Amino acid sequence: MRIDPNAGHDHLSQRAPVDKTVERTDGPKPVTQLLEGPDKRADVKPLANGQGKGLDLRNFTPRQMADLSMDLYVSGILEWDEYAMLAFQPELHPDYDRTIGALTGEKAKPDGPRDFIAEWEKRHRFEEKHNSKDRDLVQRTLRVVNVLKQIGSPTNVVV
Q1: Residue extents of the structural domains in the chain
Q2: In degrees to the nearest 10, what's the CA dihedral of 132, 135, 137, 140?
Q3: DSSP SS3 for 85
Q4: pTM of this prediction exceeds 0.90
């Protein structure tokens, strides 16, 4: 197929103007939609190292969390602001040891497991105490905690 660079775009000017703003009216999807069936669970299965046991967010690495957060955003479970909060893993930055690590005295451990549910619960308590006037931030943090808790303990119902 060859595209003619001299071709005009007259047909585009004849169309009515398009409103490019997109407003999400249904809100974020509940995390249970990601975990309902085997076809949905396959979206996050590679993050569990191919094991069908699910995701252990109490023993998860920053690298894995960055990947999981993208999956949660793409599937509509997290909104952009929640995704940005969860995906930001400072230890993945190549200059971590020279910047934050130099201040804290700790080297980056991007593949070191940690309890992300406990970390986000701690972050929520911090936001409640120190940023209580920023209700949007507190609510976004709580929503991330709730999503992580649901993934960390999925419900299996057999009928």
Answers
A1: 28-152
A2: 120
A3: helix
A4: no
Angle at 118 between CA 142 and CA 38, to 5 degrees: 75
CA–CA separation, 154 vs 44, rounded Å?
13
Q: How many CB atoms lie within 10 A of CB 51?
A: 9
What's residue 28's pLDDT? 52
pLDDT at 70: 95
Q: Report d(CA 69, CA 83) in Å as an integer.
A: 6
Selected residue with higher pLDDT from 47 and 123 = 123
Joined together, the tokens standing for residue 46 give: 């590679």
Which of 51, 79, 50, 72 has the alpha carbon at shortest distance from 116?
Answer: 72
Cα–Cα distance for residue pair 44/3, rounded to 1 Å:
39
What is the arithmetic mean of pLDDT over 6-17?
A: 44
